[in-house]
Design brief:
The structure is a homodimer.
Chain A (H helix, E strand, L loop, with lengths): L6 E3 L2 E3 L4 H8 L2 E2 L2 H11 L4 H4 L3 E5 L1 H9 L5 E6 L7 H17 L3 E5 L1 H7 L4 H17 L7 E5 L4 H12 L4 H8 L7 H21 L5 E6 L3 H14 L5 E5 L26 H9 L9 H7 L7 H10 L3 H13 L4 H33 L4
Parallel strand pairs in A: 5-6, 5-8, 6-7, 8-9
Antiparallel strand pairs in A: 1-2, 3-4, 4-9
Amino acid sequence: MPKEKFKVTPWEVKGKVDYNILIRKFGTQKISDDLLERIKKHTGELHFMLRRGIFFSHRDLDWLLDKYETGEEFFLYTGRGPSGHTHLGHLTPWIFTAWLQEKFDVHLYFQMTDDEKHLVKPLSLEQTTGFAYDNALDVLACGMDPKKTHIFSNIEYGKTIYKEAVKIAKHVTFSTAKAVFGFKNSSNIGIIFFPAIQAVPCFLPSVLEGKNIPCLIPAAIDQDPYWRISRDIAPKMGYYKPTQIHNKFIPGLKPGGKMSASDPSSAIFTTDTPEQIEKKIMNAFTGQQPTAELQRKLGGNPDICTVCQYYFYLFEQDDKKLEKIFEGERTGTLLAGEHKADLAKRVKDFIAEHQRRREKAKKIIDKVMLRD
Amino acid sequence: MPKEKFKVTPWEVKGKVDYNILIRKFGTQKISDDLLERIKKHTGELHFMLRRGIFFSHRDLDWLLDKYETGEEFFLYTGRGPSGHTHLGHLTPWIFTAWLQEKFDVHLYFQMTDDEKHLVKPLSLEQTTGFAYDNALDVLACGMDPKKTHIFSNIEYGKTIYKEAVKIAKHVTFSTAKAVFGFKNSSNIGIIFFPAIQAVPCFLPSVLEGKNIPCLIPAAIDQDPYWRISRDIAPKMGYYKPTQIHNKFIPGLKPGGKMSASDPSSAIFTTDTPEQIEKKIMNAFTGQQPTAELQRKLGGNPDICTVCQYYFYLFEQDDKKLEKIFEGERTGTLLAGEHKADLAKRVKDFIAEHQRRREKAKKIIDKVMLRD
């Protein structure tokens, strides 16, 4: 086995991620062609993120479909750590989640971990709870069904969340939590308790409805460790193990790593102005040759070109058109300036539309948020 | 220093406690005669629990009186782990707390740790929250001022409690919590977080009122470790360190140790019937001689006689009458049967009156309990 040159934890993603190694390391399953066919039977078409392997790994998705096919409705659960504004990397799984919700017509529980972000970042609770509301607008703007979507901040829905977390925490020892998350003596006691809080939504609809309801979690694969604990304790508490579907990270505008909120120039935020978007994309790393002449002669590499990757992950859903863009990059007919300008226009249009939806979301947000 | 033959932690009290050693070990201060005089200036008389050294130790009580004398009102905070019905050992500090509240005319915040008891005992959260309400009736029956008393269960007031606990937890590392409480790898992550929950009421009135308010905690000395953490983090959070006044344990009806809810025959519960009380007291350990003849000749030892100790801790507030009882025990004029029968009558009268107050408390409990 090759030496791993990358690192993936719930708090850190470093280096060029080899997703096949990650599947082995985390012990998840690759989404097979058979499983894709089975999904297609229910959805009528496959979302481009499934076709392209952006969602690439799962736990017990086949079991979930067994249940669904015998008439048991499941629910979706995903979340966000509200430490700042939302960027395109965050939207990727949410857009897919909205599609799942529409195709299967199911409820979505969306957890804003404002408590966690206060515990691990130099942010006040007032700031993180503020971001929770701000980010919730972006969630709705992705096209969630407001009637079947329930967004909550752990702090604002704290009575319900804390109560269920206490029941879960009783079954999680420090050694288990330490083994999964690598806690140290210097870790604060809030973040040590947090795995119980993040496990709550796996079972919450079952508690609220008074019956066992299967759970599907679409999320980036770095969050997987949290659900290992949930899966471990589920049988002890009389619930189904939550199932998962994992996505890859949308790359940053700079080479290597994922789009990161802690480096604003690496990411496009949903609150960015057209000028900011234009500037960030025109500065993006393309992996093209140093001069137009050389690029025309030698061509570039779409795999390391962040502009190509943006099309791949979000901005060109038509596979044939995408191939044309990749081809242009590869053969040198597509030069960096034009390449970036085209993407900048797409992204600006996308964000403009997203911001319109975000404004509309402000009118319904109060009905969608759960509170105690 | 003599080998310690006793053990005092928030979860366990074992052996014959040497309170002078405990003061040195815990680093608290003995309540001096000067301090008693100073209290008397404000209260007009000294409660028998102060006169008799039942409340014997403190942290910064002199500082609290400095504040009070310059016009700053303080508040009282104490609590209970609701794992069963209330016994006389629990009532001791509450009766004293009601006296403090009356004499200083201050607010009382009373925490029911139903979360903690679920985390460490084989009890469901429904059971511990149930006991929280049951025990709250006993608190009110001790004569608290309902207008200035705020009782809450951590679960039912969970939104407020969890929010403030998260802010506190950020300042408490695992190594600090471990050093104070001796957590192990097998400890569950809920009980590791719990010190933050128990610290909340030290600062909660300051948060709710938006100003720094001094806190006085009357509680049995085994709870002291919790406040060490609160005192440690208070300056970091911009609050006064909570001050404390500690009581000794009311002895059980059997020799050695404290009155314990886990051994029902060692304790008299507020829900006991007159017959149960009679039976428990008639079976109590007196430390008298094996026969009436020997007792008349040699006398007994009031220090190890649980009947004498009950008079001392709760049932004979008049010092002269108490001395007469002790004298009778010492000289052998007071025989076990009469001794116990006298106490049984007192206890039955006390519990009957307590139960009447408990019934009255049911009418106002809803107004006194804080809820989210």
